[in-house]
């Protein structure tokens, strides 16, 4: 996707068999260091101090089926255990019946929490891959100790021999596609559709056809993007309304879809409901003209806060295209206010 940037990092050698530190997630300072020797993997994971921290070895990039090590500060060495992730619900995080971690500890120093552990490469029938990319997951809760839902999470692939890493989770591509489609719907299709209805009514029925095509296209893009967002949250085992952006987005989508249905059920111009219908339809359209670009900007910033990827490419597009559309609207509104409205405007029957 246009603004999904693969995060490729080379590890820094810190010993004959050690690698790191590797910055996995910039916004929350998730850093990974490790060493391999004598058939075991020794790993250190540090991130912003909070409730709990966890890493998991995944066979396919999904949460379910992964082997996780989760811990939180408690006493001298902390509370660290191994778990099977059998479902996306808290009761599906099942402790391993015969754990064999060694050197497990979790410490807090200032604003940083660090978890250390050693596990065999061959463990519980889930060997760690040394000859290629090993898929790993990370998650954290910022406030609560214990097995409660994570606030942030991510996935990445790592070569434990060379230290090369790539944050290539397909889920991040889902949310990137969601953002691109929503931006095109709310910053291009819907504004241009509203402008065609307001400023092109002198061109017989061409304004109506342009308005209809743009609004239908924007609505379809919006619904596809909405489905991608739902799929992303379900795959990542997250909360649909963990931040204000999804809740505001759901309200926005509901209003725009209601407006789309209103457009399909337009009453005849002689109907007593015509005035009320026009007031509803035009008000939602005007609000979307302002609210849509703000939601798009909120989505860009939310993506950056979740994944730490560069958002400059999309910001450049946003900063260039959105003001152009706004300037066109301002110019047309100024010209419209100075001109005399032509008589005999064609209205679709």
From TrEMBL:
Keywords: Electron transport, Membrane, Mitochondrion, Signal, Transmembrane, Transmembrane helix, Transport. It is found in: Membrane. Gene3D superfamilies: 1.20.120.1770. Residues 28-141 form the DOMON domain. It comes from the Eukaryota. It holds the Pfam family DOMON. Residues 141-337 form the Cytochrome b561 domain. The chain crosses the membrane at residues 180-201, 213-233, 245-265, 277-301, 313-331. Residues 1-18 form the signal peptide. GO terms for cellular component: membrane. This is Cytochrome b561 domain-containing protein. It comes from Plasmodiophora brassicae. The lineage of its organism: Eukaryota, Sar, Rhizaria, Endomyxa, Phytomyxea.
């Amino acid at each position: 996707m246009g603004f999904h940037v693969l995060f490729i990092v080379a590890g820094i050698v810190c010993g004959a068999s050690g690698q790191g530190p590797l910055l996995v997630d910039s916004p929350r300072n998730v850093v990974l260091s490790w060493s391999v020797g004598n058939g075991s993997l020794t790993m250190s994971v540090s991130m912003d101090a909070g409730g709990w921290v966890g890493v998991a070895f995944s066979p396919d990039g999904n949460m379910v089926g992964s082997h996780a090590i989760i811990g939180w500060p408690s006493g001298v060495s902390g509370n660290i255990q191994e778990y099977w992730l059998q479902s996306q619900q808290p009761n599906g995080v099942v402790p391993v019946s015969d754990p064999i971690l060694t050197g497990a500890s979790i410490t807090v120093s200032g604003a940083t929490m660090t978890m250390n552990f050693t596990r065999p490469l061959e463990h519980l029938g889930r060997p760690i891959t040394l000859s290629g990319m090993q898929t790993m997951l990370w998650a954290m809760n910022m406030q609560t100790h214990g097995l409660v839902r994570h606030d942030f999470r991510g996935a990445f692939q790592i070569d434990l021999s060379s230290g090369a890493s790539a944050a290539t989770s397909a889920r991040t591509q889902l949310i990137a596609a969601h953002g691109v489609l929503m931006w095109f719907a709310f910053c291009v299709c819907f504004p241009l559709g509203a402008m065609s209805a307001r400023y092109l009514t002198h061109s017989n029925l061409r304004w109506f056809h342009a308005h209809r095509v743009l609004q239908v296209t924007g609505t379809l893009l919006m619904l596809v993007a909405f489905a991608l967002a739902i799929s992303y949250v379900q795959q990542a085992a997250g909360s649909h309304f963990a931040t204000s952006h999804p809740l505001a987005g759901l309200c926005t989508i509901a209003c725009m879809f209601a407006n789309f249905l209103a457009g399909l059920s337009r009453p005849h111009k002689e109907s007593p409901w015509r005035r009320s219908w026009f007031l509803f339809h035009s008000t939602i359209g005007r609000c979307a003209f302002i609210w849509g670009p703000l939601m798009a900007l909120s989505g860009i910033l939310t993506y950056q806060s979740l994944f730490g990827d560069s958002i400059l490419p999309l910001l450049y597009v946003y900063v260039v295209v959105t003001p152009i559309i706004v300037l066109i609207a301002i110019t047309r509104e100024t010209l419209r206010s100075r001109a005399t409205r032509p008589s005999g405007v064609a209205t679709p029957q």
